[in-house]
Amino acid sequence: MGELHEFNARPVFDVDTKFMDKGACRGEPIEMFYPGSHRTSIAHRTAIRTAKGICSVCTVAKECLDYSAEYEPYGVWGGMTDDERNAYRINNNILLKNQTRGLMPDARARWRRAAKARKEL
């Protein structure tokens, strides 16, 4: 099995993200928070449950959700999946910032490239 990458997210745009240093996810495998595109698989659902369990005991989950609602299109953030955050955005009239798409690489694509590289070694 390839090496695990730790979840230490940092945005490339100017947003206060000091709360991330206190996140319960700090140091956890990033794959847990970006479980891939097989949304009906047991492994996917298990990863989502595990990630949400970590979020449920996190002292900065609210700050994480507030941040992710504006800046994170993918993954589990603040205890919500990307689909749940999309509904949250709609219900709360929050727009995903354009700079997210323009400046940040797609997190899932980045993860897939890293996973593929690990398998080729």
List the helices and strands and how they pair.
Blueprint lengths: L41 H15 L4 H11 L10 H10 L6 H6 L3 H14 L1
Helix pairs in contact: 2-3
Describe this structure in words.
- By secondary structure, the chain is mostly helical.
- It has a domain at 23-99.
- It has helices at 42-56, 61-71, 82-91, 98-103, 107-120.
- Helix 2 crosses helix 3 (82-91).
- It is globular.
Major sheet details: none
In N-to-C order, the SSE pattern is HHHHH
Portion in helices: 40-55%
Please state the average pLDDT score.
Answer: 78
Question: What is the total tally of β strands?
Answer: 0
Shape: globular
Which structural class do the helices and strands define? Answer: mainly alpha
- What is the radius of gyration computed over CA atoms, rounded to a whole number of angstroms? 14 Å
Beginning-to-end CA distance, first to last residue = 10 Å
How many helices? The count is 5
This entry's quaternary arrangement is single chain
The fraction of residues in strands falls at: under 5%
Uncertain parts: 1-8, 99-105
